[in-house]
Structure formats: structure tokens, C-alpha cells
Amino acid sequence: MAASSEHEMIDVSGHEVRVSNPGKLYFPKVKVTKLDLVNYYVECEQAVVGGLAERPTVMKRWVDGVEGKPFFQKRVPDSAPGWLETATVTFPSGRHARELVPNDAAHLVWGVNLGVIDWNPWPVRRGDLDHPDELRVDLDPCPGVPFDEVRQVALSVREVLDEHALLGFPKTSGSRGIHVYVRLVPEHGFEEVRRAALALAREVERRMPGRATSRWWKEEREGVFIDYNQNARDRTVASAYSVRAVPDARVSCPLEWDEVAVVEPEQLTLRTVPARLAERGDPSAPTDEHPGRLDGLLELAARDEREGLGDAPWPPHFRKQKGEPKRVQPSRAKAAPAKTGKAKAAQAKPVKRRSAGAKPGNARTGTKGDEEQ
Question: Which residues make Cβ contacts (< 8 Å) with residue 98, sequence separation at least 6?
Fold first, then answer.
């Protein structure tokens, strides 16, 4: 490394990558700098790239560190180095973007220099962008729900997966939740993978009433929300060994199943995970060796549908789907009186147009749109 008060040149993976302002504090509470983050990703390259290889990846940029405001950048700029690997993805709207494919440590360093802290890949590989090879179970506790409840729901997820001939690999989310990833044979589109994830969520909900929920609207949730919509096209989840943008620099860390019942996420940070990885290895390393099929979960989905459980709400930036229930907050739907055609016309309000810099989303569901920069 060539020392400089303004930048460092990092020689990695056959490329020299410039890191500006290396001493900038990204995590002031624990005094972690941009260069500390670079060094973490270089040290843990093999494990980090294991969750990113050949996957188009969204860049969430924290240019002022975790105490600033991030923005999403999905398009690799034309000014980027020629050696960067990319893939052109299609959003639900039909628009396209050339996204980063972080296949080695040089890509990680380049992204961190732009303010990337965690990595958010698609569940597809560059060679087949329409058939996910990963089902993602995102367990998100409602406010006030203790982490032990997340642990118990994760163990129920494992039970349902086992019963349907699928092998799950758990990891901490790096925040308040747990993720369980399932490697798939890439034979179904996003719609069917999401349908399988919804069936899984509903089955766990049946087994843990009041403790687990598949309810999309926040006002209806209780316990731990199983976010089936993370499997819709263009939805992404922080990858294994991503440092998360929380004050103590926690890591989304893969676990053995026997660790789930006792894990304390605050102990898995940028400073502790490299040693853990060196001593214990990577629990998610065998993931690619166990691709499964969704037949069992899709049969469960078909049973639910026969019994009257149709589709569930999609993220707000998706077009209305066939069989989807009304896309309106339940309390508002109950409160709104029926209106005649004339009354509706009289009360119609002009449509507010988004400004050029605004991003679509829905505060009630905590979602974001697909057309970020």
C-alpha cells in the first residue's frame, strides 16, 4: 500500500484500486474507518465472494458512514474501470440496468470506496437471470419482540424445510433478525419461488400462532414477520459476511444450526468475525453442494389455494397481480364507505407526480421501489 493522507492504493486480485479518504470514520461509535472496512473484506474475500459470485448486486452507498443517509445505485457508471464485471438485469417495470457482479476482492474494494457497506445480491446467477437458485427466508421481528423468538421461528423454518426435502443455511441478518437461505435447482421463475416462500411462511405461521406471521401489512403483524416478498424479482437481501450499517458494525454471519438457539448477534462484528472464520471455517461453504427442488413447497401452496388461501400482497412497485387481494391498508379499507360513481368522481384528487429525485415506496410496509439510480 502506498501511504497518503488523502488516499491509499490497494493492490488486490490483480488490480490497483484507489481508496480515497481511508481514515474516514464509517462507524464512529466503534471507531471503524473506511480502510478498516476495506481490510475486512480483503481478509474475508473467499467467504464474502462465496455469497456474491456471478450475482448482480445492488450498491447501497453510505458516503457519510452509518450516521449519514444512504442511497441506492443499481447502475454501474460508464466511468467505472473496464475490468469490473457486470450483468444487465430487468426490473418488474421492464426497465434495465447494468449492475455490478462482485467476483473478487478488487470489486469489493472498489464498492467500499464508493460507500458500500453491505452487499445486496440478486438470488440469480449471471448465466440465468430469470430462474433463482436461492430461496431466501427473512425473519424480521416486530418492535418489542425479543431475539429469542426469532431463534424459535428460525428453528420452525428448518423443520418445515426438512419436511419438504430442502436444506436451509441460517445466518444472522446483522441487525435484529435471522436469514435462512436454501440453494435451489434453477428451474422456476421468480413468481413460483415467491409462491413457495409464501407457502412456507403460512405453514410456519400455522405452527406458531401469535409468534410468527406472514401478514404483509404492519398493523396486522405480530411476533416475527416472515417476509415472503424478499423472493420477488428485484428484491435483495444482505449477503453472507456483509458488514451491516448499524452502529456496532455487526456482520450478517452464517451459523451452524446448533448455534441458532444460543447466538448473540452483537458478538458477531467486523472485529470478531475474521478470527471466527479462520478458526471455525464457513458454515455456509457447502451451500452449493445441496441444491433442492420446490416440489414439496409448491404442493403445499396448491393445497392452500384449494382451501381458499389465495395470493398475498406484492410490493407496491409491482403491477397488480392476478389473484392478489386489494392493495390497501386493512384499517383504511374497513373505514372507507362505499361510494357511487358520481361520489368517487367528486372526491377524486389530482395524482401527485413524483419529483425526479424521489424514490417510490410504501412507508406502511417498509418497502422500496425498483427504480433507484
Answer: 75, 76, 86, 87, 88
Residues paired with residue 250 on neighbouring β-strands, in sequence order: 269
Report whether 123 contacts 132 (CB < 8 A): yes
Which H or E run includes 258?
helix 257-260
pLDDT over 60 at 252, yes or no: yes
The answer to whether the CB of 236 falls within 8 A of the CB of 217 is no
Measure the CA–CA gap between 372 and 176, rounded to whole angstroms. 25
- What spatial distance separates the first Cα and last Cα of the chain, rounded to whole Å? 32
What are φ and ψ of residue 139, in 5° steps? -100, 115
Half-sphere CA count of 201, side-chain side, radius 13 A = 30
Cβ within 8 Å of residue 274, ≥6 positions away = 40, 43, 44
Report strand pairing: 86-90 vs 116-121. Answer: unpaired
Helix ranges (H only) for 65-218 are: 105-113, 147-163, 190-207
pTM value is: 0.86
pLDDT tens readout for residues 285-341: 999 999 999 999 999 999 999 999 988 888 877 777 777 677 677 777 666 555 555
Question: pLDDT tens, 93-151?
Answer: 889 999 999 999 999 999 999 999 999 999 999 999 999 999 999 999 999 999 999 99
Q: Is the pLDDT assigned to residue 366 strictly greater than 70? A: no
